[in-house]
Specification:
Its cofactor is [4Fe-4S] cluster. With about 350 residues, the protein is α/β, with parallel strands linked by helices. It is built from 12 helices and 14 strands. The longest helix has 13 residues.
Length: about 350
Amino acid sequence: MYTEGNNAVNTIYDNHGRPLNYLRLAVTDRCNLRCFYCMPAEGIKYLPKKELLTFEEIERLVTTMAAMGVSKVRLTGGEPFVRNDLMQLIRRIVEIPGIRDLHITTNGILTAPHIPELKRLGVASVNLSLDTLNRERFKQITLRDEFDNTFKTLNLLLEQNIPVKINAVVMEGKNTEDILPMLELTKEHPVSVRFIEEMPFNGEGSHYPKLTWTYNRILEHIRSQHPNIEKIRDDAHSTSYNYKIPGYAGDVGVIAAFSRTFCGTCNRVRVTAQGILKTCLYDNGVMNIRDLMRSGATDEEVRSKLIAAFHQRAANGFEAEQRRTDHQQVHESMSTIGG
């Protein structure tokens, strides 16, 4: 269903009655880390530049989707700041009518020099990928010695009062001993530390026969040391179950990314760096927007194709995985999908 209000404020709903107002847009598949949970140690075969959406195509797509009711955009990668002149794109997007919130997910390595301008442009928040506070474990997980740059970015974001969420993927045998120390970041700082179930988006498939560090186990581990932790309100479309330790400045979230318990309220769609629309993280792409635009399609034709795709959306991640046209289990790199 697609509705247009009296004030030309549109809303797009999927076939399950869920509003779609959040676009996660990958601007590159390249990354300067080799995280264990994201790609093989040898990396992935990156796309030629000509296969990526251009800034002009991205601006056109966001403008079209904003007119349909998308008001929140998150730029992801790969690592978004690896793409040349990313700030130029950010300056364009924040001026698009209808876009109220622009967010960025980054590993922080190249982000620090841009933080003052991100503040001036009104970037709503930054999600910082940081899986450990231990420099040696950081190097083991990412295969790069870049902890200092990431932590510098965290401190600068806090200094500029830009809302920060720290994304930490919980990996058995890699960083489970970091859960409680990372939780302590919320004691003095108004940050949200979010622990995420590991997913099989690493270019290889699942690392384990069975996921043992589920969201329930993560929460039980936290409660073993903080039995007074309190449940707080989750936003309407939150992917995390959110909690707070009394007296702490920040909060903690646990994301059931593999268990997929939040699908019923999902309001987001993804577009990969090469312009593939994913109406669910677990599908393998339902539409090639890049090729459609490059074939000469009008904005109305693009909008019509988008509406048709939204009206065939899977009910949840399990159905999306079953529908995959490659008939394979999920295995692609998160760097290719868009984080």
